[in-house]
Amino acid sequence: MPCRLLLVDDHPALTRGLAALLSQEPDLVVNGQFASGEALLAFLEAAPTLPADLLLLDLRLPPPHDGLRLLPRLRREWPALKVLIFSSATSPTLVSQVAAAGAHGFLDKSVEAGALLAAIRAVHTEQLVFPARLRGRPLTPAQPVAEPGYQAAEVLLRLRQLSAREREIIGLVREGLSTRAIAERLSLAELTVSTHRRNIMHKLGVHGVADLLRFAHEHGL
């Protein structure tokens, strides 16, 4: 199934150009272009079913609905609609706010077409797409963070990557259960539990049970 897209930007020439670019891709379909948050909301509210899989959203939109104000409502009323922010405003604090509001990714408008297409496809397949500074760094209380707001966003993004099963296993690790005991409790193979534990460590950027227990305690897992 192709990825159905909605484009929101207050520069019609940009949305037309994006639509032309995306229409050349056989797995992408543009179902709507809007110059304001108000127009987008009217379209979504009138649709009998969700008309798109992914929304490419600029942050700088005419009042009263700028992109940052739209995000919480979109996530609340249309939770199945993935939101990829496409903006020229890229301050660390803003990226952190966008992540906290529930966006699935953040992309600078200066990226090349190939990077945009790759990001759209990644978000469509349940991946989070944020600047590298929000991904891939081990999180420890002593780690210095150069940009205000980034560490909180990093933690949020890592937590959002955990599956329900992985959260359940973290809870059992906190209870002191071994891999074998967890496998017996959940009726899983030990190898499966070991794989889950490795994935948990990788997603959270921690090393060893002690780090995992500290992280879980600090973040309520």
H-E string: EHEHEHEHEHHHHHH
Report the β-strand fraction as a percent range.
5-15%
Radius of gyration: 20 Å
Mean pLDDT, all residues: 83
Task: Please give the alpha-carbon distance between the first and last residues.
Answer: 35 Å
- What is the strand arrangement across the widest sheet? 2-1-3-4-5
Structural class: alpha/beta
Oligomer: single chain
CATH superfamily of the largest domain: Response regulator
Tell me the number of structural domains. 2
Biggest beta sheet attributes: 5 strands, parallel
Supply the CATH architecture of the largest domain: 3-Layer(aba) Sandwich
SS elements, strand count: 5
Number of helices in the DSSP assignment: 10
Gross morphology? elongated
- Please bin the fraction of helical residues: 40-55%
Low-confidence stretches: 134-151
CATH class term of the largest domain? Alpha Beta
CATH topology of the largest domain: Rossmann fold
